[in-house]
Amino acid sequence: MEKIFKTLDEQIKILQDKGLVIPNEEYAKEILLRENYFFLNGYRHLFMESKSNRVFRSGTTFNELYSMFYFDRHIRNIIFKHLLIIENNIKSIMAYELSLRYGIREDQYLNPKNFVKDSDRKKQVNDLLKKLKRQIRINGGNHQATQHYIENYGYIPLWIVVKILSFGIVGEFYSILKVEDQKEIAELFHVKYEHLLIWLPILANYRNLCAHEDVLFDHKAHRAILDSHYHSRLEIQKVDGEYIKGKNDLFALIIILKNLLRADDFYLLMESLDYEINILSTKLKSISIQQVLDAMGFPENYKEIVRL
Length: 308
What we know:
The chain has helices at residues 8-17, 25-35, 37-41, 62-102, 106-109, 122-139, 144-153, 158-161, 167-175, 179-188, 193-211, 229-233, 250-260, 263-281, 289-296; strands at 238-239, 242-243. The chain is mainly α. It has a two-stranded antiparallel ribbon with strand order 1-2.
């Protein structure tokens, strides 16, 4: 069935028919026009009676729905800022270590001999190296730094190349490195390379989500992180031997950030998130803040992760 355009008045009527209380319709229209009905409506799930009864809980107001939207925007900006720190750290460390080991020219650091030798992954390695070279060729002329090296030296060193590579490509690049190189890079973060292999695609996924302003708070990653001492020390509940929080939810991302960020940066991250959580808690009437935290995968004692 083809979707039909709805006017602001029609959008208001749809929300009211679903039980949403809208005390100030003109204010609601202004918000819907500026923020987009579709995006705002993406936060309705928490306020529904049930999965089968798709109407708003009794007394749910437009202001609560908008507060949830506004909260997600703020925590998305906070998370994004810290993801960019990690992205820069990962790129810088990889560029340094690989340049040190293999050289600074493209034919040196992109030599197929530098990567995993598994015959089953030969196609993956070749395809990714082609993708890297294509990104260098296409994007190289669009940045002042890369242009400088091309014009003056005839090549682009890896510490400049990483600036034009997406975080997703950098994660794929790490995945085809020799295990000894993966370990060397992971050890500089004081983590195991097996963890970093899982974390990098998750970080790239959240980074893109934040950059495109998608719904963050209840997002689920395609992969789950491995169990960690944070899960056990926070006494996160298990069901059938599996932790029910902190695996592929937003708190799983927090655990990754705890491992990769400097202590002072992580402290500021959690302080900022806690501030936004406290503000939201004062604006919710039809649901509790704990319901929001549950959707985020945050245990009740989530603040304790800072001192662990």
